[in-house]
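ARCHIVE CARD
CATEGORY: sequence design from structure
SOURCE FIELD: tokenized fold
FIELD CONTENT:
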């Protein structure tokens, strides 16, 4: 991970075999989200509902759930597969935070 741009870290794809991640296909999805500005747009749209002392951005939580579904997840707890790869997905909210009604 070089630097953070938007909601997700900047990730490079290399064929060296070092720093291998199991959800490498998601790098394309994260790149698309970042390039289109979807992460910042959703975060801005949901900003009025963000609690003053919230740790996690509601837009990032929503995008993480969408990525988990795109990677084969079928429930909110499947964001755990993203949490296992912080270099790719950055900080991911805990299962209770993701499941908490807003």
């Amino acid at each position: 991970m070089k630097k953070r741009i938007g909601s997700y870290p900047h990730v490079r794809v290399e064929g060296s075999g070092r720093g291998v991640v199991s959800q490498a296909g998601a790098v394309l999805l994260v790149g698309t989200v970042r390039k289109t500005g979807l992460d910042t747009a959703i975060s801005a749209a949901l900003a009025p509902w963000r609690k003053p002392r919230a740790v996690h951005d509601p837009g990032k939580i929503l995008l993480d759930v969408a990525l988990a579904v795109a990677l084969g997840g079928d429930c909110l707890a499947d964001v755990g597969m993203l949490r296992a790869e912080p270099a790719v997905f950055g900080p991911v909210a805990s299962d209770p935070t993701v499941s908490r009604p807003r």
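CARD ANNOTATION: The beta strands are 4-5, 8-9. The chain has a mean pLDDT of 85.
SHELF: design records, drawer C
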